[in-house]
Amino acid sequence: MILALFAALQGGSALCQDLAFTSRKYVQSPVVITSVEPSKEYGFDSVALFNDGQSAISAVHFRITFRAGGEDEIADERRVAVNLDPRESKRLTIGMAQIEGLKQQAKSRNQAAVLVIITIESVEFRDGGEWKQTERNGGVHYDPVKAAEPK
């Protein structure tokens, strides 16, 4: 009886996916995500942004990356309008990274643990200019997963 109960519990835990949520900043980005707030539905329900640049911002393009088994996949992208002056901070409700959908995605790939990463891919300025990240294909960024791996 105890063995049957233990086996049933083990089988149930194999179906539960662990999702870890984090943010990544590109070094040259004029906007910094200073904090993220999850909710029951979203891994990134809201984000606090800080305009570290010299120009006023009118929109930010966010990307959610689903990292499982060493492979990255874009899970969501969204452009969000925001008025953010230089050196100003603001919290935005973005409702990204739907938790149930990500769990289903992990389950379909037979992954017990998944890292979900939010990045700022581009920034639109009020003067019509734009910043786009260029680091993914040749720049250097800090990867907390690789940094934690033993050498």
Description:
With about 150 residues, the protein is of the alpha+beta class. The chain has one domain (about 15-125): Sandwich (Immunoglobulin-like). Helices cover about 20% and strands about 50% of the residues. The protein contains 3 helices and 8 strands. It has helices at about 1-15, 100-110, 145-150; strands spanning about 20-25, 30-35, 40-50, 55-70, 70-85, 90-100, 115-125, 130. Strands 1, 4, 5, 7 and 8 form a 5-stranded mixed β-sheet that branches. Strands 2-3-6 form a 3-stranded antiparallel β-sheet. β7 and β8 form a beta hairpin. The termini are far apart.
Key phrases:
Immunoglobulin-like; 3 helices; disordered N terminus; alpha+beta; 151 residues
